[in-house]
Amino acid sequence: MTISIIENSHMPFVRDFSTGNEQLSKKALRAQRQRELKNGEAHNHQAGEITEDTRRKLRDVVGTENLVALRRLMSRERLSFRDLLQPPQGLTADYEQLNKARKRKGDSLLRKLRVPSEKIKRIGLEYGDKLRKALSPVEGKIEQGYNLSQNLQKWTDLSPFHKFPLPWGEVPDIGSDDPHRWFLFRPPFFGFDLRATTVVSDNARVDWQNILEPPIGLVGNEQVSMDIDGADDADYASIDVFSAIAFAFEAPTTGIVEVLIDAQNIKGTHDLRTVDEWGWSNSGTGQTNYLMMHALHPNVSGPSFAEMSSFSWDTDDDTNVHRENLSLGQHYFAHLFSPGVVPGGASIVIEAGTRSFDITGTNDVSIHSKSSFQWFINSVEVRISP
Fold first, then answer.
1. Where are the domains of the chain?
2. What is the distance between the alpha carbons of residues 147 and 150, in angstroms, rounded to a whole number?
3. Is residue 280 scored above 60 in pLDDT?
4. Which of 136, 275, 321, 353 gets the highest tally of CB atoms within 10 A of its CB?
5. In this predicted model, what pLDDT tens digit does every residue of 114-129 receive, in sequence order?
6. How far apart are CA 123 and CA 46, in angstroms?
7. Integer Cα distance of 192 and 189 in angstroms
């Protein structure tokens, strides 16, 4: 079981902060990374303990020697099954019939060992439930995201800027003497931040690609994948990845930072392919994408999120699923608040972007999970909430 964190950031504008504010921003960034590492280590430890407990329960039910014999049969039959599919004879082979015959051999051995397959399946289901609880939490407060066209009145009421066509013309001067007025930020942006935290068992692989083009406000997490092949045991994986643009904001007064993000969806796909290895198999996979913001200050405990698209699939069978919940090209918005107060006069970094959190747990089911999301950040409005 391993945990890893990949990170990179570029925030040239902090050089224009006062020495004190620059140090506070760097301190907040370090603290956030330490929190994510600590959370990842805790998740990895919990998942490892749950996995070992599941393996112990399987040994208790099946018996250590019998479990070794069962695993050997599973490995041998998987290879034999693939041999039967090789050309030329495999070109005309009946895949379903051969696969059923392979699984019957596993069931036959269990009957010979007098081990009810239902007990193995029950242990696997318990494993999936415990694993989701251990790995699923995403740090920070989570709100609902909104489709802008279907919630136009709510969007219009949130800010006086929304009565104007923001992408064109001059930015109107609204409430310039109000310490709680909105400040509008649009591309080009010049700062960015990206990070990924992965937690995987020994038989799992994860991969991803951060998409970042700050000058045009493009952010994304592409090809976020989790793969577990030939799952002969309890296995798991999770990946938490985000890509964000960043800019400077000077708080005119003390209070909670309130942010509105207008984002246009460019890509949003959920894909899952599973292969049922044996009749007592089971698995659970989840993929969730968020719009997110973070006000980098030591008083702010972490990012805030708006859930935009989610996918969850529990199966003990062969599946091939593709989902697109969002409408390509449509505008969506997030209304978010910082979990902490920033002092008036402080120069802080605001991050706005997208975060993907994918998780899978499996017992004798091969997993091939992939999600891809890209967003154009059209505008970010910031104020100190009244």
1. 2-34+137-384, 49-131
2. 6
3. yes
4. 353
5. 888 788 888 888 888 8
6. 17
7. 8
